[in-house]
């Protein structure tokens, strides 16, 4: 595999136009599992389903959401968190937003096919959330940021984290899950992936760098880390340079 477009240990920006083109293309494709649209592993749909189930099994006992809670899924992709919340939280009021119109269209289709017609989806950029224009008005009992920050440059990560905190209700929770660099920061800049059949851009920060972004955003006094750790067991991780890490925060 070529190392062109792989930058280690250096902070370099990625191009959002390339990222949006990538996701518009993903949203238009059909896969053996709809989960593969944003969770990838195009040639291994069974692994995708195992990862989805494992992640939700980790989060479920930590949520303890009230009935008729409000949830905002930032960078919702195909809306997989909406499917889960609709099954586990009575009367959940769920809104998923994403900058990709193709992904939002697929999310709506998937929700209808699953009988989850109460789920709502809206095209809106994570770095320019307009609270007054959201289909569900804040505050939210749960804000989900799952696999989003790797597609954003540092300044915009800080902006998204601040928005999440502002939109979260007192005593509400924020779920943050990101692929992270194990030893150092790794940036893929228009790196052609044979598996994805497309140029791919992403920033895999270390856990320390993610914690640094939270500090720069000034959120740690307002947010208490409820739990933090590696998400998957070794058999569900495919890469040696990266792994999945998650945080659950509670707002004071």
From TrEMBL:
Name the Gene3D superfamilies on file: Vaccinia Virus protein VP39
- Alphabetically list the UniProt keywords: Methyltransferase, S-adenosyl-L-methionine, Transferase
One annotated GO molecular function = methyltransferase activity
List the Pfam families hit by this protein, alphabetically.
Methyltransf_12 (PF08242)
Name the InterPro entries on file: Methyltransf_12, SAM-dependent_MTases_sf
SUPFAM superfamilies noted in UniProt: S-adenosyl-L-methionine-dependent methyltransferases
The answer on whether this UniProt entry bears the keyword S-adenosyl-L-methionine reads yes
Start and end residues of each Methyltransferase type domain: 72-173
Domain of life here?
Answer: Bacteria
- GO biological-process terms attached to the record: methylation
Is Transferase tagged as a keyword?
yes
Q: In its UniProt entry, what is this protein called?
A: Methyltransferase domain-containing protein
């Amino acid at each position: 595999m070529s190392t062109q477009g792989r930058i280690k240990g250096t902070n370099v920006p990625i191009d959002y136009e390339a990222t949006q083109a990538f996701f518009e293309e993903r949203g238009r494709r059909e896969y053996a599992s709809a989960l593969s649209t944003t969770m990838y592993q195009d040639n291994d749909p069974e692994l995708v389903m195992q990862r989805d189930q494992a992640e939700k099994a980790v989060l479920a006992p930590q949520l303890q959401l009230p009935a008729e809670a409000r949830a905002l899924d930032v960078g919702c992709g195909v809306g997989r968190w909406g499917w889960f919340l609709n099954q586990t939280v009575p009367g959940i009021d769920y809104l998923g937003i994403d900058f990709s119109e193709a992904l939002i269209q697929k999310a709506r289709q998937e929700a209808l096919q699953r009988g989850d017609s109460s789920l709502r989806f809206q095209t809106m950029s994570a770095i320019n959330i307009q609270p007054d224009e959201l289909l569900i008005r804040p505050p939210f009992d749960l804000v989900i940021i799952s696999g989003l920050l790797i597609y954003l440059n540092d300044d915009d990560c800080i902006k998204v984290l601040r928005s999440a905190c502002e939109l979260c209700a007192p005593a509400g929770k924020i779920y943050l899950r990101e692929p992270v660099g194990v030893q150092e920061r790794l940036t893929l800049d228009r790196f052609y992936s044979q598996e994805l059949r497309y140029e791919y851009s992403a920033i895999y920060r270390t856990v320390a760098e993610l914690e640094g972004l939270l500090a720069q955003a000034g959120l740690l006094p307002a947010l208490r880390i409820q739990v933090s750790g590696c998400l998957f067991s070794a058999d569900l991780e495919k890469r040696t340079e990266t792994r999945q890490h998650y945080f659950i925060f509670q707002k004071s």
